[in-house]
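Lest this sound abstract, we let one protein speak, letters for residues, whole numbers for local backbone shapes, and leave readers to judge:
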Amino acid sequence: MGEIEATVPVPVQRAVRDDPRIPVVPGFARRTDPEDRTTPQPPREVGKALRERVPRSSHQALDLPAGRPDAVRAVEESNRGRVPGLTPIRVGRMAASPFAFLRGSAGLMAHDLVGTPVTGVGAQLCGDAHAANFGLYGDARGNLVIDLNDFDETVTGPWEWDLKRLATSLVLAGREAGADEETCRRAAYDTVGAYRRTMRLLAKMPALDAWNAIADEELVSHTDARDLLGTLERVSAKARNNTSARFAARSTEDSEDGGRRFVDAPPVLRRVPDAEAAAVAAGLGAYLGTVSEDRVPLLARYAIHDVAFRVVGTGSVGTRSYVVLLLDHRGEPLVLQVKEARPSVLAPHLPAVGFDVPEVVHEGRRVVLGQKRMQVVSDILLGWATVDGRPYQVRQFRNRKGSVDPAALAADQVDDYGRMTGALLARAHAHSADPRLIAGYCGKNEELDEALAAFAVTYADRTEADHAELVQAIGAGRIAAELGV
């Protein structure tokens, strides 16, 4: 498997003047003329110039804003609006480890990042780009792809925020895996280095090639992550069996009317009252208008049989989340997840760093469009719905999903995983931000890698202190938690 750089030619094209026969069309780039002094600077040069205002070395700084909430108050604030009976499960999951705490505290980290330098270059952010939010899933033909796979917090913002969160998560995952401190720091360093090098690669490629660059079969070679091959093969084998049919076989039973229905498995899965199930099913009518029109005939071949409530994730625990059982004419199942879409926890903090937050028409729509902007291949049944006045996203459940647990990796695999996820994040950001601009800022040397690795270690220490505060508060009875659920 050759290096991707060797397979992609970089054409050289002379810039030309606007042709009076062809109007400038909004939404397309305009032609440029190197002899015209009014022509904007090339994006790479603009990126380089940003270093004067925001030195790359400055990214190592962490100046926590005044009035920062303590860990318990931050968790309590993030629990507002969630199903009250489920918040102790969420707290218990966050208390499992510092890495788990980070996974549930995207809002607290966004609060802290307000005090850190930003270039002002915006990209579509994952918003919660920690190392466990990358994984495998099936495309339209059942083939496995690997990419970012959680977009609850997606919004346009500073690209640095995603990268800092990812680098920090590698430090915490490495510590939990038992790696020594230098290995953990190196994992963060390699994560940023892979992001920077991948962005430089994308900046050199034709636009269409860059959009689809680094196919999954090239990812390991591109990121020199060969130590991960065995782990990825095991995860892939498991993911291929992680389907709606398998979930339905374990989680449903025959019903009196000849169909199927869910079986209670508290506290994770529970049946819901008829009126609640009917409201969710009714919401799927409008959902049909949000999926690609060519998928509507496919969905029309399924009948809705049952609805259940299912607890998901770490940061997502307490949001309203349903699974809907559909059966085709042969009784073969398709399970949809209808998951509450809350406002992005990043949104309140973005104006402080110069990013306007546009009015959101529908939070589910925000999530779906953000996901499609960042992924090369997305779930073909993505859409959104409204149930009892609340916004939801809709997607396939158990769509051959699989993930690497970064906290369970061997010490010599953590940096490989960091390089892989760093490259994927760069590709995702390059769909909305000009890679030439970010590559121009990041540059060729390791100055940014060193700075963000130092930041990641510092913020990992802060997260460990926050986690310790939460654990102490649970022990003192200050906040309720269900551990081990």
In short: The mean pLDDT is 91. The longest helix spans residues 447-475. Residues 302 and 329 are 7 Å apart (CA to CA). The longest strand covers residues 303-310.
